Prior knowledge:
By secondary structure, the chain is an alpha/beta fold. The protein has one domain (2-92). Helices cover 24% and strands 21% of the residues. The chain is built from three helices and five strands; from the N terminus they run E-E-H-E-H-H-E-E. A five-stranded mixed β-sheet has the order 3-5-1-2-4.
Amino acid sequence: MKNIQIIDDADNCVFDIFQATEEEFLLIFPNQTNIAFSEDVWANNNSEALKTTFSNIWQRPIRKVDAMGIHGTLFYGLQEKKKYYPTLKDEEASNPDGTALR
């Protein structure tokens, strides 16, 4: 199982973590990426497959203290953050001026 942290724009967001199978993870994070934006995920995939995938994932919350790492981050309603992740890989995030974050 892979752990996905959800980050949304709600004032009370708690950044929950959910578990996904390898197949579910690859549907959301293709091509060895680990950053995704919900609007793009829905635009680039079969909606029926995604409905099933997310229905399954939402049934597998995991407490942060029990999570053995975070394998992917899924942003909801935060398209303005996309410019900091041009490759959709956390390790390659950039600063506002385009320089490497790390």
